Amino acid sequence: MNGSIWSNVGWSGVTTTGNVFGDLLDQQVYQWSQSTNDPDGMWRFWNYEWYAQDSWKATRKLTVNYGARFTYFPPWFEARGEVSNFNPAIWTQTNDTSINDGVQVGSGYHLIENAGYIPAALRTQFTGGLPKSGGFPGPPIVIEPRIGFAWDIFGTGKTVLRAGAGQYEERDQGNTIFGGAQNPPFDFSTSVASYGQSWYNPASATPATTGFGYYATVDPYSGVGVTSFTMFDTHDHHGAENYSWNFTLDQDIGWKTILEAAYVGTVGRHLYIENIFSPIPLGAMLCTNPANSTVCTTAGDPGTTNPVPGASGSGVQEGYRHYQPFGALDLLHHVSTSNYNGLQVLARRNVTHGLTILSSYTWSKTMGYSGGYNGTVDPFNSKLSYGLMSYSLPQLFNISYIYQLPNAGSKYFSGNKVAGGILNGWQLSGITNVQSGGPQSFNGLGTITCYQGGAKNPSTGLCPNFNASGVGWYGTPDRSLYGQLLFNPQKGANFTGVGSQWFNPNAVTMPAVGSLGTTEQPQFLGPGSNNFDLTLFKSFKLGEQRRLEFRAAAFDVFNRAQLDSPSYDGTPSPYFNFNIPAAATTYSQGAASAATNTSTTCTGGNTVGCILAKHGHREMEWALKFYF
């Protein structure tokens, strides 16, 4: 069992000794939570792959390579069947207070069905028959064709056109399925808060009903509240697929130098992602919904766009969900997509006068719906979640080189073996990287403070039920509230270095109630970076089979600290005051102020949009390596 206890220290309206340990000794407990065992899933998988390929010399100038890989990736499975899933087909609305309703378990249920923490009445109520994969069906065999060619256009070996395309299947990483062993009934947690009750009083009064004595009598299954659940799509037999292609032109320009230009494209299909299954409908929690007429009774509420009373509470939100008593069910399946398009240019100079150089430049863009395996999208319109990926770096330049330094011993001390052994044969190598910054966005909003009639958070009027989230703006907690961009955030930002604004937070505001913010935001980038690494090395011969290598390396040799991201240093999201007129009856009559946590000098804690620090420094190392 795993549990936590909170003392009364730091909470208002409760009796406290003022000391955490003092409260625990006096049994003045604010909240208690406990969970069952933490299952360590025994997850396994098998991969089966085979391939066939061939190369065809069609003409003296043209060579074609073709083939196919055949892949069979059965889903991950828990070796003991200790896995559960929510199955809508076996859920019944008449039983919507039971944590068993709709839960299908694997054969491993017998391992815990007699555990003391599961009430006897629940032990036989779960539906069996779930496969060890957690519900994912077995996939078909996937055929992944690949084809490419190389064409020596003029037959001189100096101008070559290459192209290729192929399909690639990938296995999901384990984190995508491991949650199946942490679902109820294998893992269950509950909490009881004593705030507002008599339970936080000293235990000496009535030990059976206060302090730890009360918690000992609590049945955690008597009021489960909102139960979380990870849900797997039982009809999803796909794996992540990648389709890639490229067209490349190589040209020998002389001087032992090759130039190469390529277009590279990639499309991801059936990528893993989370969706909220059966979200609370848009507008369901607003007073415009006729079903809320019995709760929207406050003067001015009926028929308005105001949210229902207590809309921010999970218990109130639960009443609007279809599959009760479960909260927002996270449905995991392969339905996402992404794409990459890039121009890649390479220059390669082979050894000439002791110098070899390889350099590359990439100009690209990566678009998609989510940057991670557990990313979420808007459940009502997934297109609102499509945009530039956080790891998309538009421009990158790299250069690496090796230079055989002139033999100073031979030049200045001809015939001197000692001078030649020390001064000859030195090599200098280096790597330089220059890249643009990563994408920035104003998706999130920070703290929103309600004002009505100029008063901050008054206890009467509209502010007590103010909710600056999807509930207050759209009538559902399952759509996020995004800021609205007024102009390019880098316009008007006077960045002069550390301690100034990289972008202008006045470019964003709150959308009007019921309106969407800016979801498809324009691209603006964080600070770029550059790095220079150098290595000086030489080998000293110590006979026929032995040698000693000396190496001195400097990373970030010019000691150039890189600017931090503004979202890393400063407050990442702007704060606002939402001002409602004194006589207003709906939140839609209010409007947001300018961002309140902004300062052009980045002082006083008002740091949104600011860069406050740099990071990085030169590192040097010396090494001796003996070969024998």
Describe the SSE topology.
Layout: E1 2-7, H1 20-25, E2 29-35, E3 43-44, E4 48-57, E5 62-72, E6 77-78, E7 84-86, E8 103-105, E9 142-152, E10 159-170, E11 189-193, H2 211-215, E12 230-232, E13 240-254, E14 257-277, H3 314-318, E15 329-352, E16 355-368, E17 387-388, E18 395-404, H4 408-412, H5 417-423, E19 427-435, E20 439-440, E21 448-452, E22 455-456, H6 470-474, E23 484-485, E24 500-501, E25 508-509, E26 524-525, E27 529-541, E28 547-555, E29 562-563, H7 566-569, E30 576-580, E31 591-592, E32 610-611, E33 614-615, E34 619-627
Parallel strand pairs: 12-15, 21-30
Antiparallel strand pairs: 1-2, 2-11, 3-6, 4-5, 5-9, 7-8, 9-10, 10-13, 13-14, 14-15, 15-16, 16-17, 16-18, 18-19, 19-27, 20-26, 21-22, 23-25, 24-32, 27-28, 28-34, 29-33, 30-31
Radius of gyration: 32 Å
Percentage of residues assigned to helices:
under 10%
pLDDT < 50 stretches: 195-209
Q: Give the integer mean of the pLDDT values.
A: 85
Domain module tally? 2
Quote the distance from N terminus to C terminus.
Answer: 58 Å
